[in-house]
């Protein structure tokens, strides 16, 4: 495992690299609003990606690196994320297809930046469709705007809602709630099978 500090417009971010033997693609994963890269579902997805030959970079946003728990505004999160992705392409992932992903808030960042970052696919763990009890405040436009293959792994009892499948969007429902801890093997299986399948045409 290698760690790299990346300067962004909003302070240093940190990327933790997990290398696969083959390196057929690279998955860049972001954390949730109040959590870090050690979240169990992120760990499961990382293991799944490496198992199918995909390098993984777990990205800590600048506010987390600085020791703050309250997340930065969306504009800052997106700009920092794209700066990290650019740096990773320059130093670690040159010429590899990029998959963007993350859990909760990190999944929203991945969706919002997928087009600009030229991601070939997007992996969403526990996408927060709306705040708990506030279905009128939907974030579905962020998910609907993604034009590349997308997988959403969601807990059946997630208080943040459940997105529906769409033309290029698959949804896998697992037992449990927003943290996806109830079925980590399910997270591993869903992420690994999907990554292997969507990347096959690019091999």
UniProtKB/TrEMBL annotation:
<keyword id="KW-0378">Hydrolase</keyword>
<protein>
    <submittedName>
        <fullName>Alpha/beta hydrolase</fullName>
    </submittedName>
</protein>
<dbReference type="InterPro" id="IPR046879">
    <property type="entry name" value="KANL3/Tex30_Abhydrolase"/>
</dbReference>
<dbReference type="Pfam" id="PF20408">
    <property type="entry name" value="Abhydrolase_11"/>
</dbReference>
<dbReference type="InterPro" id="IPR029058">
    <property type="entry name" value="AB_hydrolase_fold"/>
</dbReference>
<dbReference type="GO" id="GO:0016787">
    <property type="term" value="F:hydrolase activity"/>
</dbReference>
<dbReference type="InterPro" id="IPR026555">
    <property type="entry name" value="NSL3/Tex30"/>
</dbReference>
<feature type="domain" description="KANL3/Tex30 alpha/beta hydrolase-like">
    <location>
        <begin position="24"/>
        <end position="168"/>
    </location>
</feature>
């Amino acid at each position: 495992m290698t760690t790299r500090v990346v300067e962004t417009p909003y302070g240093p971010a940190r990327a933790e690299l997990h290398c696969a033997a083959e390196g057929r693609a690279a998955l860049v994963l972001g954390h949730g609003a109040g959590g870090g890269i050690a979240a169990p579902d992120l760990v499961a997805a990382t293991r799944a990606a490496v198992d199918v030959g995909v390098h993984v970079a777990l990205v800590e946003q600048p506010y987390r690196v600085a020791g703050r728990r309250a997340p930065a505004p969306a504009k800052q999160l997106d700009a920092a994320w794209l700066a990290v992705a650019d740096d990773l392409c320059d130093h670690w992932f040159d010429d590899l297809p990029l998959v963007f992903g993350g859990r909760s808030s990190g999944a929203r960042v991945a969706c919002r930046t997928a087009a600009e970052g030229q991601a070939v696919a997007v992996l969403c763990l526990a996408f927060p469709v709306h705040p708990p009890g506030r279905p009128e405040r939907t974030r579905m436009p962020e998910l609907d705007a993604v034009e590349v293959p997308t997988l959403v792994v969601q807990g059946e009892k997630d208080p943040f809602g459940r997105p529906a499948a769409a033309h290029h969007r698959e949804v896998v429902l697992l037992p449990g709630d927003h943290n996806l801890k109830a079925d980590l093997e399910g997270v591993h299986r869903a992420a690994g099978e999907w990554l292997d399948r969507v990347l096959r045409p690019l091999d």
